[in-house]
Amino acid sequence: MCIFCKIVAGEIPSNKVLENDEFIAFHDINPVAPVHILIIPKKHVENFQSVTPELMAKMTSFIQDVAKELCLDKNGYRLVTNNGKDGGQEVPHLHFHLLGGAKLKWTHL
Ligand code: 5GP
Ligand code: ZN
C-alpha cells in the first residue's frame, strides 16, 4: 500500500483540513509555504496523467472548497501537481499541492 493510501486508511496520521467520501485534504509534513496542503483522491490513482476526467471534475470542485475553507480564495494560491520522474513526483498517488499564505515566487528546475 502506498503512503497516501495508508493515510486514507488511517494507518498513518495526518492533519486533515477537509474530507468527503472521495477526497482528503491534509497539511504537508514538510511545508514550503505558510499554507501547504496536499489534496488526494481516496482511490489510488498514480498521477495526473492517469486520472479520469470524471474524477478530476469532482476533485476540482473539492479543491475549490479547500481553498475557500482556508480563505485562500481572496488573496490567491498556487496549485501544483508533480507528474512522474521529470516532474519530481515522489509519492506515486495523485496529489495536488495547494500553496498560499504569502506572495509566492516562481521557480523552476
Ligand atoms: P511530490 O514530490 O510527490 O509531489 O510530493 C510529495 C509530498 O508529500 C512532499 O511535499 C512531502 O513533504 C509530502 N509527504 C511525504 N510523506 C508524507 C506524510 O507521511 N505525511 C504528510 N502529511 N506529507 C507527506
Ligand atoms: Zn495510494
Can you characterise this structure?
This is Histidine triad (HIT) family protein. One of its GO terms (molecular function) is catalytic activity. With 109 residues, this protein is α+β, with helices and mostly antiparallel strands. The protein has a domain at 3-34 and 42-75 and 82-89: HIT family, subunit A. Helices cover 29% and strands 22% of the residues. It has helices spanning 3-9, 53-69, 72-75, 84-87, and strands at 16-19, 23-27, 35-41, 78-80, 96-100. Strand 1 (16-19) and strand 2 form a beta hairpin. The N and C termini lie far apart (30 Å). The mean pLDDT is 97. Residues 3, 12, 14, 26-30, 38, 82, 88-91 line the site of guanosine-5'-monophosphate.
Bound molecules: guanosine-5'-monophosphate, zinc ion
| Overall mean confidence score, pLDDT | 97
For this structure, the CATH topology of the domain at 3-34 and 42-75 and 82-89 is HIT family, subunit A
Query: In the CATH hierarchy, what is the architecture of the domain at 3-34 and 42-75 and 82-89 at level 2?
Result: 2-Layer Sandwich
Derived from helix and strand composition plus strand pairing, the structural class reads alpha+beta
Q: Strand percentage, roughly? A: 15-25%
The Rg value, from CA coordinates, equals: 13 Å
- Tell me the CATH superfamily of the domain at 3-34 and 42-75 and 82-89: HIT-like
Poorly predicted regions: none
Question: N- to C-terminal separation?
Answer: 30 Å
Quick one: how many beta strands?
5
Number of helices: 4
Listing every helix as H and every strand as E from the N terminus to the C terminus, the arrangement reads HEEEHHEHE
The oligomeric state is single chain
